[in-house]
Amino acid sequence: MDPATLKAVLVIASGLVMLGVASRLKATIRRRWGARPAPGERVLREGKAIPARFWVNRGREGGPRTKRTMRDKATLVLTDTRLVVATRYGIIVELSDSNKDGIRCTGPDRLVVEGHPPGTYNPSRVELLTPDASAWVDAYHSICGEE
Predict the structure, then answer these.
(1) Which of 64, 70, 105, 147 has the fewest CB atoms below 10 angstroms from its CB?
(2) How many CB atoms lie within 10 A of CB 94?
(3) CA 115 to CA 103: how far, in whole Å?
(4) What mean pLDDT is reported for the chain?
């Protein structure tokens, strides 16, 4: 291979690597920043990079595909007023302390959260695989005022 061709291949390969790194960085930032608590909220529990399978009814700009099951890693944050599930697409589900039926444990290590993103009515469902699923349900019900 002549030097010009080798140089072109290296430039293209390094560009593709940089594009992959930028994509992963963007996904990580959206997942972490989407689940940030609002000023004045106290974080009670937090889970990072939890394997998740989710489904959304309607799409939004830059969001996940509609009516298809997708897999991703999620950040799960429980504050004193709400529960937030965020993926690389931003906030997928946000439950306030008035929605008691939006979270349940369907089996060992399986947590299901159903709700919608803030400011929209876009029904979404997220299944998370976390070893302390029942503890998440109990903690959420405790902020709702149930025991």
Answers:
(1) 147
(2) 23
(3) 9
(4) 84
What's the domain range around 65? 3-144
Q: Tens digit of pLDDT for each residue in 90-126?
A: 888 888 866 667 899 988 899 999 988 777 777 888 9
Yes or no: say if 77 and 118 are a contact pair by the CB < 8 Å rule.
no
Length of the chain: 147
Which residues have a Cβ under 8 Å from the Cβ of 116 and sit 6 or more positions away? 93, 94, 122, 123, 124
C-alpha span between 90 and 133 (Å, rounded): 22
Q: How many domains does the chain have?
A: 1
**DSSP-derived secondary structure for 94-127:** EEETT--SSEEEEETTEEEEEEB-TTS---EEEE
CA–CA distances in Å: residue 15 to residues 2, 4, 12, 65, 142: 20, 17, 5, 27, 50
- pTM score of the predicted model: 0.76
pLDDT tens, residue by residue, 56-73:
876 665 566 667 788 889
Side-chain half-sphere CA neighbours of 43 within 13 A: 12
